[in-house]
Amino acid sequence: MSDSITNIFVISDSVGETGLSLITAGTVQFPNSKFNIRRFPLTKTISLLQGILNKAKRENAIILHTFVNPELSDYVNNFGKENNLHVIDALTGVVQILAEITGEKPLNAAGLKHKLNPDYFKRIEALEFAVTYDDGKDPSGFLKADIVLLGVSRTSKTPLSLYLANQGYKVANLPLVPKTQIPKEIYQVDKKRIFGLTNDPEVLNNIRRQRMISYGLDPDTVYSNMDNINQELEFATNLYKELGCLQINVATKSIEETATLIIESLDSED
């Protein structure tokens, strides 16, 4: 197993849902590897695209794109060849084959799959909600959320929030730090809507060390110290018991698996 992290950029002139689903389906086949997936939706101009691609070059990222605009698609493909980057063009080939078979010229319009689809607008609203109420930035979000995620640093709160938001759930999350005051709103939320995330100390230690290394910093810090990690996890566990919420250990679970457990728990209460 490699300790390195593979950066993956998902770029689209729509919301990037298709690309994210494809790359997620691929990466879960490699449980011993680490991936950092970032989505860049609504990229509709060359100038905006250039900045993203330059960042991808600096980070030696794999690029997966789902552009329906041929100009943007060609620009990414050419950039990849010129800079020796791995580029996955996930849509152009499909559109070209369908055009050849049907004899119809494609519209080349982004996001048509979502037009007039209420579920699409629900997901967009949920994604905006997740961004607004990420990391406990506004405690009022806990009372408005369908799901509240609690967890110490590096228990996948934000990616899980975004994944659930893409399923249409409004999610707010709160990072837990010992000796900090828990917002009073947390105690006002129905415990069935709160989910406490935890992790194995060794796994968390490795994740945090790799995080520091990726920043070019010393991996042996207070952040990755095992005694501190154990204290954080104990603090979180005690809070979960106090709240009476479901606790989920994410150490061996993918984002999809954790999300499924949460959704099934919610459904069982209906």
From TrEMBL:
Reactions catalysed: N(tele)-phospho-L-histidyl/O-phospho-L-threonyl-[pyruvate, phosphate dikinase] + phosphate + H(+) = N(tele)-phospho-L-histidyl/L-threonyl-[pyruvate, phosphate dikinase] + diphosphate; N(tele)-phospho-L-histidyl/L-threonyl-[pyruvate, phosphate dikinase] + ADP = N(tele)-phospho-L-histidyl/O-phospho-L-threonyl-[pyruvate, phosphate dikinase] + AMP + H(+)
Residues that, per the record, bind ADP: 151-158
Enzyme Commission code: 2.7.11.32, 2.7.4.27
InterPro entries membership: Kinase-pyrophosphorylase, PPDK_reg
One GO molecular-function entry: ADP binding
Keywords assigned by UniProt, alphabetized: Kinase, Nucleotide-binding, Serine/threonine-protein kinase, Transferase
Family affiliation: Belongs to the pyruvate, phosphate/water dikinase regulatory protein family. PDRP subfamily.
Function: Bifunctional serine/threonine kinase and phosphorylase involved in the regulation of the pyruvate, phosphate dikinase (PPDK) by catalyzing its phosphorylation/dephosphorylation.
Xref: NCBIfam families: PRK05339.1
UniProt-recorded name of the protein: Putative pyruvate, phosphate dikinase regulatory protein
Organism of this sequence: Ligilactobacillus salivarius
